Amino acid sequence: MIKNTYKLKAKVWVYSGMAGWYFLTLPEKQSREIKSLFGGEARGWGSLPVVVAIGKTSWKTSIFPDKKTACYLLPLKADVRKKEGISDGDILNFSLEIRT
């Protein structure tokens, strides 16, 4: 059976563009594994649908490949950040399930 759930740790950062989006960059090792196992199922912009859980909050979203780091990026919605008290620079433990 193919592993599709990951327990990860990453640092929150803010995109410097106009929108000020918050992201987590998935670790290199897991990004390579996810691309190897699920890259063929990628959607627009190389995205993969996921379910993420941080603290008591879970939601459906997508991860996106980043050409600079060769890792996947996970955008953090404002309502999730508010519910969980997440700020720029925080180190988060989270689970991510690839939805295939």
UniProtKB/TrEMBL annotation:
InterPro entries: AF2212/PG0164-like_sf (IPR037079), DUF1905 (IPR015018). Pfam families: DUF1905. This is DUF1905 domain-containing protein. It comes from Candidatus Doudnabacteria bacterium RIFCSPHIGHO2_02_FULL_46_11.
